[in-house]
Structure formats: structure tokens, C-alpha cells
Amino acid sequence: MESTLGLEIIEVVEQAAIASARWMGKGEKDTADQVAVEAMRERMNKIHMRGRIVIGEGERDDAPMLYIGEEVGICTQPNAKDVCNPEELLEIDIAVDPCEGTNLVAYGQNGSMAVLAIAEKGGLFNAPDFYMKKLAAPPAAKGKVDIDKSATENLKILAECLNRSIEELVVVVMDRSRHKELIQEIRDAGARVRLISDGDVSAAISCAFSGTSIHALMGIGAAPEGVISAAAMRCLGGHFQGQLIYDPEIVKTGLIGESKEGNLARLKEMGITDPDRAYGAEELASGETVLFAACGITPGTLMEGVRYFHGGARTQSLVISSQSQTARFVDTIHIWDKVNSLQLN
Fold first, then answer.
1. Alpha-carbon gap, residue 320 to 258, rounded angstroms
2. What value does the mean pLDDT take over residues 177-186?
3. What is the pTM assigned to this prediction?
């Protein structure tokens, strides 16, 4: 899978990022999202595969979609029988967020990126558009911290695993009213809190890399993005757990259904019989081969954003593979017209 799709999925996220970045700072988050979706779909439809979107875009935000169940790739086109050999057909499941952090793009803030995760058919958890309680931590703490423990307990464990004091730890939390008590507990324990307005996929992945000054992600965010984060963290050997949140009173947004009972019924219809189960990265991204790709739209902790120059653009991407056990940072110069010079820094 990696040898077949590795370069192409980088180009998928690059094209989405380039399209979205043109709307950076213009205050139009839906447009930034829409152009990213269109660019991502167009590039995926040029790949020799039969892909199925299992985590898509738009249900929660009422934005344009790469909808759940949509088929993408050359081998889904009407003339597929003429160009695709059924015996060599690559069937994959795809989780996408063409513009993770639409508000970040709209208001010119750091941390937005185009992301996707892929695995063979059936290899990604089909998360509903609910919320998810998340815990991400570095590889040294894998299997030692636990989402069922308190933030205080996990910070003590994390400090021991990293040979640091709690005061030296930084925890990323989404800046939401539902996290008021969590934030206070983290501070009372002695750790520092970095609040973010959007974009917790980048924060989760950053936990796996030393030098990012991010040691944990805690709190509640979107469930689909949780699966994408889990895919990356599984490949990197980091700790990730997610637990679905189906009670609207907990998230206080009104965006996940009208009632707890209705949401439980929906989960049951999806075959989720234990709604309170905490899933590990290996369960959320269970495929034999898992690939993750991201491209910075605006500058972030892991990647630069899209930088335009006359006649082209420069992007920085990250592709992570469970197959080759690699994390590759890819710096690309895109040349569209005649240019006088290519600047390297």
C-alpha cells in the first residue's frame, strides 16, 4: 500500500492545503473548507484505487462534503472495468479532514492542516459525528497513562515516564467551557496548559515528537478527528485513547443530536453496543497497514504553512507509515509558471 499510494496521498493533502491557504485570513471558513474538499476529491479521483470515505467532511459543520460512503479513485469511475484489473484492485478506507481548523484559516491563525488517514478495507473505526474524550501522550507513556484516570494521576505517571517534574509538562486543551474543571485540575497539579481554539489533530500528533514542548492532549474534541489522530499515533507508537461522548449536556454545543437517548439509539444502529468503551489507537486504526498524511495550511508546531511565491508555492507535509515505520517530512516546491528564482529559505 505504501509503495502504491505513498507519494500520491502526499499530493492529495498538498493540493487541499494549497487551495485552502488562498483563503487564509479572509474570514470565510466555509469557502476555505469547500475548496480544500474539491481539491482533495479531484486528486483522489486520479489515483488507481477503489477508495471509500468512512470518515468524511461536513455533517457537523453544515459544510461541503466528501461524504461518508462516497467512493473515490479511478477504479470507481464508470470506465473502471477498462482500466482496473480486479485481481490487482487496491480497496481502501479513507478518513479525511481537508481543512482541519477552518476557523484557523479564516482568521489567519496557526495550526491548520489538510489531513487524511488510510487503511485497507475495514481498517478504520467508522466514528459517528459525535464528540470524543481524548488522551494523547508520548511513546514512553504508552499503556501507562489511562483515560479512566484523573488528570492529576496521569500527570504524575507522565512525569515519571519522561523523567520530568510535573511543572515541566505542557498539556494542550481545547479552549471550551466544558473544560473549565479539567483546566483547573491540570493547573492545580502543577502542569502548564496550552489552550487552542481548534485543530487538536496536530496537538495529539505533536505528543509523539520530542522537542515540540507538548507532552499530552486532554479533553473532548470531535470524534472523527480522533480516529485520524489515532491512525498517526498508532504508526508513531504514541499513546492515544478515545471515548465517545453521546450526552449533549456534557459538550454543551447542541451539535450532536437532540437527546442522549436518541444518540444511544444511533450508536446501537451502527453496531456500537458498548457506548462507554475507551478505544485504543490499535482499535480505532486496526488495519494491517495504516498511512497518515498531513500538509500545513497555516504554520504549525510540526509543519510550515503554504508559502506562495510568484509562479508557485512551497508546502511542507508529513507522511507516517505503519508498514515502513517511518515519519517523513516532505518539503515540496510547486512550479506553475515561469519563475525567476526558487528561494530555499
1. 38
2. 96
3. 0.92
